[in-house]
Amino acid sequence: MTQQHFNEDLCDFLRRSPTPFHAVATMSAELKANGFESLDTADQPLEPGGKYLVERNGSSLAAFIVGTELGPSAGVRMVGAHTDSPCLMVKPQPERSKQGYFQLGVQVYGGALLNPWFDRDLSLAGRVSFEAPDGTLNSALVDFKSAVAIIPSLAIHLDREANSSRSINSQTDIVPVLAQIADGETPDFRTLLRERVLTEHPEYEVKQVLDFEMSFYDCQPASLVGLKEEFLASARLDNLLSCFTGMRALLQADTSCTTLLICNDHEEVGSLSAAGAQGPMLTSILKRLAGDDASYAMLVERSLMISADNAHGVHPNFADRHDENHGPRLNAGAVIKINANQRYATNSETAALYRLLAEREGVPVQSFVVRTDMACGSTIGPITAGGTGVRTLDIGVPTFAMHSIRELAGTADAWNLCKVLSRFYNHRGSLTAD
Ligand code: ZN
Predict the structure, then answer these.
(1) How many CB atoms sit inside 10 A of residue 199's CB?
(2) What is the mean pLDDT of the chain?
(3) Against a cut of 0.90, is the pTM above it?
(4) Of 97, 232, 276, 413, whose CB neighbour count within 10 A is largest?
């Protein structure tokens, strides 16, 4: 595997993962092709050397290997990331017709940067729940793939202040346009979804579509940008880049240590859900791995979680938004995120281990603290640490345009992060400083 191949696979993963549901399906398929098996029943025994997979809501996934030499109570080497990204989600009764145009009303999911959503070729993807003719309830993933919608800008001639003071009303200004319709024509979104399910899944029969979770996404695929192709531009780099990198590292793990990857949904909206990092998913897996209370206490004490979520690189046009000693650059290594007020879970011991692993791998590391006069973001790191008691460190690849419909990363950073995470998964030494 070379950096170029790794990035080609990452671009392919991003293309096939327009929603958290699709990201989990894509990861699940790759993990199963590499020997991981779904853990379906509560009484299925976990074997040393076994590779297992757990899904929640079809949008969160955990994969783990039971160590042959270092069992769970010797400490689990964990990597965490999130599958969701800010986007526009279709409302439950979305149909609108105005001025002869068919539109779908949207909710804003997470802290989306709305400006870049204008004038993009948009498609639709998500999960559809339906009733079959025999009365059973079923769900299927759909992806329209082609450009079926657009949110046109208002011309500057009709808004002379657009470049100095345009603001965006998320209820009225960003309603995507899907078609022109004749007077009296009333397209029905559920009918459209029924046709799509039948096209993509000819094995199903659909009596009626009951409900859906559909979101818009940019059709433009991920691509390499720059005179030396040093940048990777794509939607959803936050945080599918870390999901993919964590998965590839786990696939390179030998089976001697107990290792785990968890990719949770709903990070962008606070993580409190059945499938989110504030839910019981990880704790229930760790308890199952441990077996009994005494082993669980040892597991928690000896484990370590690397929470991987993208960081803010210092932007050449806005360099004053960073502390002058802590401006991470693209292609200069993953960033250790530190916050005295525990918005990040990193401490000196967990950061030290990461620095040691990166040094042994020969890859660079950077550090980030937010300016003390600005608010600090957060991630699943402190939530997981608080929920499980496992020591944690927050790191991430530096990017630009976080939460835009098209974000930017350096082409060397995910590749180098993968090397460090692989070394972590195969690290037989103690995870603590003592
Ligand atoms: Zn994130």
Answers:
(1) 10
(2) 95
(3) yes
(4) 413
